[in-house]
Amino acid sequence: xxxRVNTNKKKKVAIIGLGYVGLPLAILVDKKGYExxxxxxxxxxxxxxxxxxxxxxxxxxIVRQFQKGSFKATTDFDSxxxxxxxxxxxxxPVYENNMPNLEPLKSACENIALRLRKGHxxxxxxxxxxxxxxxxxxxxxxGKTGLKCGxxxxxxxxxxxxxxxxxxxxxxxIPRVIGSYNEKGLKKAIRFYKSIISAEIxxxxxxxxxxxxxxxxxxxxxxxxxxxxxxxxSFSYLGIDVVNVIEGxxxxxxxxxxxxxxxxxxxxxxxxxxxxxxxxxxxxxxxxDFLSLARRINEKMTEFTAQLTVRALNERRIPINGTRVAxxxxxxxxxxxxxxxxxxFKIIKHLKNYGADVVVYDPYVSDGSTVSSLEEAIKNSPAxxxxxxxxxxxSLTPQxxxxxxxxxxxxGRNCLPKDDFIKAGILxxxxxx
Length: 433
Description:
Elements: H1 2-9, E1 12-16, H2 22-31, E2 35-39, H3 43-50, H4 60-68, E3 72-74, E4 85-88, H5 103-113, E5 121-124, H6 132-143, E6 154-157, E7 176-180, H7 183-194, E8 201-203, H8 207-238, H9 242-249, H10 273-283, H11 289-315, E9 324-328, H12 344-353, E10 357-361, H13 374-378, E11 383-386, H14 391-394, H15 398-403, E12 408-411, H16 418-423, E13 427-430
Parallel strand pairs: 1-2, 1-4, 2-3, 4-5, 5-6, 7-8, 9-10, 9-11, 11-12, 12-13
Antiparallel strand pairs: 6-7
C-alpha cells in the first residue's frame, strides 16, 4: 500500500467542476495519494474550500477526509497543464424545454483544449447522451489543438455514480463502467479507477456504450416510478392503499422490484437523464413514446399533490384561497441540502396559484425557508405538505400537529404512520393512500 501511495504522489489529477460529483472525487483522489487539484469557476466556492469549509452538506467521513487532506481548489485552468489526468465533472442540465444544455461541458472542454498536451488522459464523468463524446468533446479537443484523440491524448467516459446520503454505497465502493476512444485509453482509465476505488470496473466497448449506461440506469428508475405514481393516482380514487399493495407484491421472491410513489421526482439524474436519450433518439429519427410518457406522468405529481391539498381542505370546509399551508422540505431527498430539480418548487408554485398562503421550512436549506423553525412553520397552519422525508418531519406526532392547529396532512413521501394520524382525527392524505 505504501508503495502505491508513493507512486500516485508523482501523478497530478485535475478535477474540473467541484459540485456534488467533482468535490467528493477530488477528495478521494487526494486520499489515495495523488496530487489533487480542483478547478471551479465559482470564486466563492474556491475560497471556502481553501479555507477548509465545505460548501454543501455531505457524508461526515468525506468532510473529515477533506479537512485533513491536502486537496487544493482554484479558478485557474492553467493548473491542469502539468496534470496527467483531467476529469470533467461539470453539470449537464436541461433547458426549460427539456433540451440538453451542454454549454457548461463545452466551456470546460474549450478551456482544457487551450492547455491540452500530448499524453493527457481526459475522463468525462458528467452525464451525457450517447454521441456527445464523439460529436462534441473530441471535435473541441482536436480542433483547437491539432492533437489526435487516441494517438496524442486519450479520452474515456466513466459516468458518475453517487447516491448522496447513502451510508452503504459510497464513491469508493460503487461499481463503475468505463468506455474509451481506443484500447490504450481504456487501459489507462481502468488503471486510474482501480487505484482509487475498491469495486468492480466493467469495461465497455465504446464511448457510446458507456454514455448509454448512465441514461439507461436512471431511465429505468423513472419508468418504474411513473408506473407506481400512476397507480397511486388511480388508487386514490379507488380507495386502495398503494403502499400496502406494493409491499404485498414485493413478497414475490422473483420478477418484481418494489418502487414507491411520491409527490415528484427530484435530483440531478432521474428527472433529467431521460430527456437526454429522448432528444438524442429524436435527432436520429426515433421517438421514445414510452420514456416520454413516463416523464409526463412523473411531472404531473406536483400538480396532483397540490390538488390533493385543495380537496383535503375542502373536506374540512376550508377554502384554499388565503389559507396558510406549510410546505415541509425543499431538498430532493432526506438529510441533505441538495435542491436540484426538487419537486418542492413546483408544488409551492401550484399552491400559490390556488391562492394558498404558503410558508416553507427545510432544516437543511435555510436560504430557501421562509420561517426559521419547524414550530413556526406548523403553528396556525391548517394544512401541511411533506415534500422531503427528513427525520425531523417523520418524528412529527398527531398531538403536536393538533396543538398547533393542523387538521390536514398531505404526506407527499408516505413517511408518516397513516393510521395514527387518522385515529387522532387528522385528515391524512398520502400519495395513493
